[in-house]
Amino acid sequence: MAIIIDDMGKRLQEARSLADIGVPLTFSIIPGLPKDRQVAAEAEQRGIELLIHMPMEPKGYPAKRLEENGLLLGQSDEEIRARVGKYLEALPQAVGANNHMGSNFTENREKMAVVLNILKSRGLFFIDSKTSPASIGYDLAEEMGVRSASRNVFLDNIQQADYISKQLSQAVDIARKRGSAIAICHPHPVTIQTLAAELPRLREEGVTFVPVSRLVH
C-alpha cells in the first residue's frame, strides 16, 4: 500500500512528524508554498519519495481558489509548459506528479496531454488523484505511454480519527483483494496523529507500505 501526503510544503514540522512515523510514505509538495524546498530537502535526507502536487483548475474556479501558479484551461499550451517547467525547477528531486484539485482540468484531454508529454519527456510518472470521477488523466497517461496509477481512497475528507481509521481499513481491504492500493491524505494534525497510531500496527499485521513509484505501471 502506498500513502501519498498531499499539500506538503507549508511547514517543515509536518514533514518531520510524518517522517518520524518510520513507515515509507510519499510526499506531494505544492511548488511555491513557503517551505517547499526545505520540505523537499528534509524528505530527500530521510529517504522519502517526492511528487510534484500540480495545482490545476477545479470546477467552480475562480470562486473556488487556486494557487497563483496553477494550470488553467484558458492558458495557452506554451504557458502551461512554462509553469510545469517551473514546478520541475523548484523540485528537481521529484520522481512523479499528481494533481492538486483539478476537477475541471483533468477532464480536458488536450490540456492534460500537454502536461503528460512534459512528464514523459522527463521520465516522471503521473498519479491521477481522481478529484473528478470523469478525470481522463490515468487513461490518457496509459494511452500515451506515461507510467501511471490512480488513487483508490481519500483518507481524511472528514478530519476525525475514527473516520480516517475507517478509510485506512478500506484501503487495506482493497490492497488485500487487488494486491495493492493507493491512499491520499493531507498533513492535518489529526491525520498525522492517526497515521502515527495506525501505520505501525498495520505493518505488524502484514501490510507492506511502499513508495508510490512501486505501484505505477
Q: Notable features of this structure?
A:
about 220 residues, about 20% strand, globular, single chain, 7 helices, alpha/beta, eight-stranded parallel beta sheet
Quick overview of this protein structure:
With 217 residues, the protein is α/β, with parallel strands linked by helices. It contains 7 helices and 8 strands, in the order βαβαβαβαβαββαβα. It has helices at 12-19, 36-45, 77-90, 109-121, 137-144, 161-178, 189-204; strands at 2-8, 26-29, 49-56, 96-101, 125-128, 148-150, 153-154, 182-185.
SSE blueprint and pairings:
Elements: E1 2-8, H1 12-19, E2 26-29, H2 36-45, E3 49-56, H3 77-90, E4 96-101, H4 109-121, E5 125-128, H5 137-144, E6 148-150, E7 153-154, H6 161-178, E8 182-185, H7 189-204
Parallel strand pairs: 1-2, 1-8, 2-3, 3-4, 4-5, 5-6, 7-8
What this model shows, in words?
The model has no long low-confidence stretch (mean pLDDT 98). This protein has an eight-stranded parallel sheet with strand order 6-5-4-3-2-1-8-7. Helix 3 runs parallel beside helix 4 (109-121), helix 4 (109-121) packs across helix 5 and helix 6 packs across helix 7 (189-204). It has seven helices and eight strands; from the N terminus they run βαβαβαβαβαββαβα. It has 217 residues and is α/β, with parallel strands linked by helices.
- Estimated structural class: alpha/beta
Runs in which pLDDT lies below 50 for 5 or more consecutive residues are none
Number of helices: 7
- Fraction in helix: 40-55%
Strands of the biggest beta sheet: in what spatial order?
Answer: 6-5-4-3-2-1-8-7
Largest sheet: 8 strands, parallel
Q: Residue-averaged pLDDT, rounded? A: 98
Spatial shape: globular
What is the CA-atom radius of gyration, in angstroms?
A: 16 Å
